[in-house]
Write a structure and sequence with these properties.
Blueprint lengths: L11 E4 L5 H12 L3 E6 L2 H13 L4 E5 L5 H13 L6 E4 L14 H29 L3 E6 L12 H21 L4 E8 L8 H4 L2 H10 L12 H8 L10 E4 L8
Parallel strand pairs: 1-2, 1-4, 2-3, 4-5, 5-6, 6-7
Helix pairs in contact: 1-8, 3-4, 4-5
The structure holds D-gluconic acid (GCO).
């Protein structure tokens, strides 16, 4: 089998929310597969630290500190990348936040913040990336990060669940319009992963036991366990895959 099938050399990947958590792990995995990276976050210091760590591993890294929920900021960020000659071949829409509270207690501001960060941002950043991919006529890859909550709901995370359900359908909608431009748009649906966003759950013995009992693998997933699927969807190996959500969930969605 050709080893170049999964080689990302010569390509540049923008991973939103890649200064920590799943995004940071995916960014490292894409870099290790040969891609140059654009690290994004809203905190310049965090973005700089994540970029420094990747550079220390010998990778080519650009820093892009901007708020993915702010349309004007997204437009300015892409204009800066254009001016610097940085062309995005691979986009990973990873940025996301969690809010855990009963739906009856969720304010409109709460709701909008989660929807804007976890769903609308994928539209705003995806649109700018696709505009350029289509104009260049060189194709591209867009990978949206969903969740097992793209399929099943859990009480107290309604805004997040709704956004992640939207990610599944936005992935299909993007594929419907952009596949003819040789842009493959797909999604990854993580299960319960060992991240700071889930720290409160991890530290709760009964929730920890529930995750382990509900997951056939009987354990939480590690962020680095998303890398193989991310590299696959970012590479030539998935040239005829469109609109799919690949669940990396230890089997959680496959069982009652
Ligand atoms: C929660 C968790 C989940 C997981 C993940 C599952 O509160 O239930 O945060 O949302 O993080 O998204 O795919």
């Amino acid at each position: 089998m050709s080893t170049t099938l999964f080689d990302l050399s010569g390509r540049t990947a923008l991973v939103t929310g890649s200064s920590r958590g799943l995004g940071q792990a995916i960014a490292r995995g894409l870099a290790d597969a040969g891609a140059s990276l654009v690290v994004n976050g809203t905190d310049a210091a965090r973005v700089g630290a994540a970029a420094k760590a990747l550079r220390e591993s010998g990778h080519v890294v650009h820093e892009a500190t901007f708020d993915v929920t702010d349309e004007a900021a997204v437009l300015r960020a892409f204009e800066r990348l254009d001016a610097a000659g940085v062309e995005i071949d691979i986009l990973v829409n990873n940025a996301g936040i969690q809010l855990r509270k009963p739906l009856v207690d969720v304010s409109a501001d709460d709701w909008n913040k989660v929807i804007n960060t976890n769903l609308t941002s994928a539209f705003l950043v995806g649109r700018e990336a696709a505009r350029r991919m289509i104009a260049r006529q060189r194709g591209g890859k867009i990978i949206n990060i969903g969740s097992v909550t793209s399929e099943l709901a859990r009480a107290t995370v309604a805004p997040y669940t709704t956004a992640k359900g939207g990610i599944k359908m936005l992935t299909r909608a993007m594929a419907a319009e952009w596949a003819e431009h040789d842009i493959q748009v797909n999604a990854i649906g993580p299960g319960y992963m060992l991240t700071e966003m889930n720290r409160a759950l991890l530290d709760n013995p009964s929730f920890d036991a529930w995750v382990k009992g509900r997951t056939p693998a009987r354990r939480w997933g590690r962020p680095d366990e998303l890398i193989g699927t991310a590299v696959y969807l970012a590479s030539a190996a998935s040239g005829y895959v469109n609109g799919q959500m690949i669940y990396v969930d230890g089997g959680m969605l496959s069982v009652l």
